[in-house]
Design goal:
The chain is an alpha+beta fold. The protein folds into 3 domains: 203 residues, Rossmann fold (3-Layer(aba) Sandwich), CATH 3.40.50.620; 73 residues, Up-down Bundle (Chorismate Mutase Domain, subunit A); 105 residues, no CATH class. The protein is built from 14 helices and 21 strands. Strand 2, helix 3 and strand 3 form a beta-alpha-beta unit. The protein is elongated.
Length: 437
Amino acid sequence: MNDLQQHFNHQLESCPDTIKRWVIGLSGGLDSVVLLHLAARAIPAEQLLVVTVDHQLQAQSSQWTDFCRQLAVSLHLPFYHEQVVVPEGASVERAARDARYRVFEKILQPDDCLLLAHHLNDQAETMLFRLLRGAGVRGLAGIPPRRTFGKASLFRPLLDIARPQLQQWAQAEQLAWVEDPSNRDLSFDRNYLRHKVIPVLEARWPRFARRWASTARFMRESEQLHQDLAIIDSESVALGDGLDCSALAQLSPARQNNLLRFWCRAADVVLSERQLLAIKQLIGAADDRQPVVQLGHLQLRRYQGVLLLQTDDTELEWGDRPLIASLELPQGRLVVSESAVRGLKSLAGVTLRNRRDGDRCRPLGRGGSCSLKKLFQESGIPAWQRRSWPVCVVGDEIVALPGICVCENWQSEKKGSGFALKWQPTALSVKGDSDTL
C-alpha cells in the first residue's frame, strides 16, 4: 500500500521548486480524501490549504462541508470553503464545474499549485464522453495532467491511478469519505457511461482505461504539433491583429482550419463546424460587403482583406462622461498621455459623447471645418467602429477626436505640452493560446 504514497511523492518531485503553496480541492468523496491524506503526509502543513466548494445542489451539501472542515482540522491544515449558486441550464455538471473553478482561480496566488484528484477512470470516462460528442484531437487529448490555471498552476498527480487502487488504499488506511447520491443518477450522461457502458467495456477489455490513457497522451502530442504549426502559420498570415485573407487562402484547407481554431480558441471561442464553414466563406467575400460571423460575444469581420476578431459591436454609450484620465472598457482603451507635439491644452470641462449625424469640427492645420465622417474615412476607421468612437467636447463644441485630431483653439501653446489622446478599439490578436482543458 506504500506504492501509492511513493507514486504521489514521485509526482511531486516533477513539479517546479518555485511552488510555495499547495491547494487541495476537497469534495469529501473518496478520490479527494485520498489525495488530501497523501498530500498531508508528503507536504509540510504550512504549505497546504484545503478548499471545499459547496454547490448547494444536494440537501446534504452543508454536512459534506462540515465533514471536509473536520477532516482538515484533524490533519491540522488550514481550511477554506465557499458556497456557490449553480445557474440552471442544460448541463448542471458543467455549470457546477465552472462555478467551482472560479472559486479556485479567485483564491490562487502566482506561486500556488492546485491539486485535483482526477484518476485513470475519469480519464477514460472523459475521452469516451467526448468521443460520443464528436470531439477532435484536442478533445480526445482528455484531461491534461498539468496546465497553467489563472495566475497559478494545476496538477493532477493521480491521473495514472485506477479508482479501485484508490479505494483499496483508503480502506487499508481506514479512511472515511462521503457518497454523493447524484453520482448514481443515470440521467447524467457521465453517470450512465460510468455505471452502464464502461463496466461492459472493462469486462471485455480489462485494460480498457489504461489503453485509453495512452491514447490521450498520443493525442496531447498531436495537439501540441497542431499548436506549433498554427504558430508557424500565424507568422506568415498575421497582419496586425488580424489574418491576411490572401495569405490564408494559400494554406491547405486543413491548415486554414487549424489556424482559425487556434486563433479563436485564444479568445476562448471553440468553433463549431458551421461557424468554421461560415468563416471560410467570409475569407472569399468581396471587400465591399463587410460581412460578419457572430461567435458568441465576439464578431469576426473581413475588412480591407483582413479577418478581424473583435468584441460585439454593440454601441458604447459615452453619455457625456467626464474625461479625467485613461479608461479601460470592454470595447476599447482610451489612453491619455503627455503629448510630444501640440496636444489638447486641458482636460478641464472636457466630456465624451458619441458621434452625431452632421457633426463637424475644425481640425488643427486644416484651415476650415470638416465632417467627422470624412475624418474617419481619411483615417481608415471601419464604419462599425465609428459608432463607439469617443468625441471630446466642451459644451457643444468638439475639441478633439482621439487618435485623429485636436481642433483649432484647443491645442496647447507649444510643442511637447498638453495631452495626447488615443482610442484603441478592442481587437483580439492572433498571437497566443488559451489552454482550457
